[in-house]
Amino acid sequence: MIAPFTPATSNTPATPATRAKVLGSAGLWAGATGQSQAWIAARIPHQGGMCLLARVVSASPSEIRCAADSHRSPDNPLRLNGSLGAACGIEYAAQAMALHGALMAEQRGQERPSMGFLISVRGVSMHVDRLDEVTDDLTVSAVCEADTGDHCMYGFSLTAGHQVLLEGRAMVMLDASLMAPEA
């Protein structure tokens, strides 16, 4: 596993003031731990049944871990003909990345991104065919490997118990509204 990159607080080099801001944000990250689906939904674009994450297990400037049980729901909006393919785990990971990005924006004193964009996924390995057959809760992990302030590279995995179900890497544009043409 690649060691996580310490996220930057802006596109400028770290100064004592920016380092103090990051260190003072420990309460933000600790406060995320244990938060519920409603708290998560208030910070990501996905709402209702499409908010797939149930709670935050742990969070830090370098990574986030969330729990999910929606893979067992017959009403999961990603199901096709009654089954939930393993590739749908990428959406679970993308939501964890979106939540991490929202927390990073809050740490920086910026507005939360209104929408993000999954630019690419690489090196995806699926170790199961279907997620709906997994009886345990999912643990969805995203480790920030590089951060430019508006783009992040994440390593991600979905596990159930000690079994790795899916893993890979993703490049994310945290605020896709930056791409919108000006009126």
Helix content: 10-25%
- CATH C-level: Alpha Beta
Q: What are the secondary-structure elements, in order, as H or E?
A: HHHEEHEEEE
From the N-terminal CA to the C-terminal CA, the straight-line distance is 44 Å
Shape: globular
Residue windows where pLDDT falls under 50 for at least 5 positions? 1-20
Number of distinct beta strands: 6
How would a crystallographer describe the biggest sheet?
6 strands, antiparallel
Can you identify the CATH superfamily?
A: Hotdog Thioesterase
Tally of individual helices: 4
Number of domains: 1
Widest beta sheet: strand line-up: 1-2-4-5-6-3
Q: What oligomeric state best describes the polypeptide chains here?
A: single chain
What is the percentage of strand-forming residues?
Answer: 25-35%
In the CATH hierarchy, the architecture is Roll
Radius of gyration: 16 Å
Structural class: alpha+beta
Mean pLDDT: 85
CATH topology: Thiol Ester Dehydrase, Chain A
